[in-house]
Task: structure prediction
Amino acid sequence: MSKVIGYTQGTFDMFHIGHLNLIKNAKRHCDYLVVGVNDDVLVESYKKKRPIVPVKERAEIIRAIKYVDEVVITSTLDKKEIWNQVRFDEIYIGDDWKGNARWEKTGEDMKELGVRLVFLPYTKDTSSTMLREKLKDF
Ligand code: CTP
Result:
């Protein structure tokens, strides 16, 4: 049996327990986990705010996690483009994105490539946005 290559991608700003749970769960599904870390320009283009922690530092933190086998810094949300480089068998995303039009389309695109889209449980009550908001009160 050949090894299953898994892929997940995110911003991972102000690394928190939701990120860790997602990555830990992803590694349960595959033999080799590649994590894409969105660069600062990409994040600003779709979240309309710059990450607090610069991409090089976010990537270094993700690289140090024992469940992660490889990190790629990404400048696109187009998973077909990334698949051309990484050739993953499965792709993971938190189930907060279930029903989202972009991810529905990604699921279809991935199917055509023989890649399985797996939604993993979202961790409630934490996010980079929530942390940002909390910091305003200090
Ligand atoms: N994620 C999760 N549980 C959380 C927060 C994020 O499972 N509480 C997952 C997302 O679904 C995604 C990955 O972690 O698969 C990276 O998400 P990212 O957007 O980097 O983190 P958020 O904390 O959601 O950032 P933001 O608040 O800016 O949207």
